[in-house]
Design goal:
296 residues, alpha/beta, Alpha-Beta Plaits, Rossmann fold, 2 domains, 8-stranded mixed sheet, elongated
Length: 296
């Protein structure tokens, strides 16, 4: 079976309503794509993140009367008759297999591997975290996650407690436990992320050493030797005091989810309580690490 795809270029503030219009016209699925390949933030759980110039892509059955669809779109007040669009025929594929082909075991640092379950583990003697792409953010493919994994691999975590603030899939907490940490705490605003972290911890045999909390349920006396927060830069600034309080005196902090252009702003929000290392960048993203100098 083949499919027909309509791609329409629009502005970010109109993309979501245009997607609704395509669904009403018979589209089976909608995809939002950055038209200029700008760097983007990872979306928060349950959030659809749009960009300044966005391509909205509707996928239709090959049997659809595409001329009728175009007529519906032309009559919509959201679009003018000369709206920019492209119609393509899409060949039928085993989409699950196609998607799986993109994920391979990846090494971070000297000894840590993130491996999807359908691939052979390259080095059985290494520290292997088995983790499949799922509903929560964090597989190691995004530069921000990669930067955090490389940092964790460089630390001596044996016997230490780590907090993964914004844990998503649980990848950072699980990696820390596999690298020798005695205890990990994952915190996330989304119940789906909490469940994903729990499932991934069980798969990797570390669930007994991982505690998971929504922020409102977090005990007030919790602190850790190592805290890593891979979330949006704006949230890192807003939560600077709360995150800083989680780090023990002389403990280590890593902040990511930050564009390189935002590094100085984020650093300023934490500089009162930390001595910082040089910023480390990967593509357009960066990681900020530092040591707590005293109680907050």
């Amino acid at each position: 079976m083949s499919w027909i795809q309509i791609k329409i270029n629009t502005s970010g503030d109109r993309a979501e309503s245009l997607g609704d219009l395509l669904i009403e016209s018979g589209a089976l699925s909608i995809t939002f794509q950055d038209a200029h390949n700008h760097p983007i933030f990872e979306p928060l759980p349950g959030e659809t993140r749009l960009w300044g110039d966005t391509d909205v892509i509707g996928l239709y059955s090959a049997e659809i009367d595409i001329a009728k669809v175009i007529m519906i779109l032309e009559q919509s007040p959201q679009l003018d008759k000369n709206f920019i669009h492209k119609i393509e025929q899409v060949e039928d594929k085993d989409w699950q297999r196609e998607w799986m082909e993109h994920f391979h075991p990846v090494c971070f640092g000297q000894r840590l591997w993130i491996c999807p379950s359908w691939r052979e583990v390259p080095d059985p003697t290494a520290v292997n975290v088995m983790l499949d792409p799922g509903l929560a953010f964090g597989t190691g493919t995004h530069p921000t996650t990669a930067l955090c994994l490389q940092w964790l691999d460089s630390l001596d975590l044996v016997g230490k407690t780590i907090i993964d603030f914004g844990c998503g899939s649980g990848i950072l907490a699980i990696a820390a436990l596999k690298l020798g940490a005695a205890h990990a705490i994952g915190i996330d605003i989304d119940a789906q992320a909490i469940q994903a972290s729990r499932n991934n911890a069980q798969r990797n045999g570390v669930s007994e050493n991982l505690d998971l909390y929504r922020p409102e349920d977090l005990p007030t006396d919790i602190s850790a030797d190592v805290v890593v927060a891979n979330i949006l830069a704006g949230s890192l600034c807003e939560l600077a005091l709360s995150i800083s309080k989680l780090v023990k005196n002389n403990g280590s902090l890593a902040l990511s989810g930050i564009l390189t252009t935002q590094a100085s702003t984020v650093t300023q929000a934490y500089q009162q309580n930390f001595i910082f290392d040089p910023v480390v960048s990967k593509e357009d993203w960066c990681r900020i690490t530092g040591t707590m100098t005293g109680a907050v």
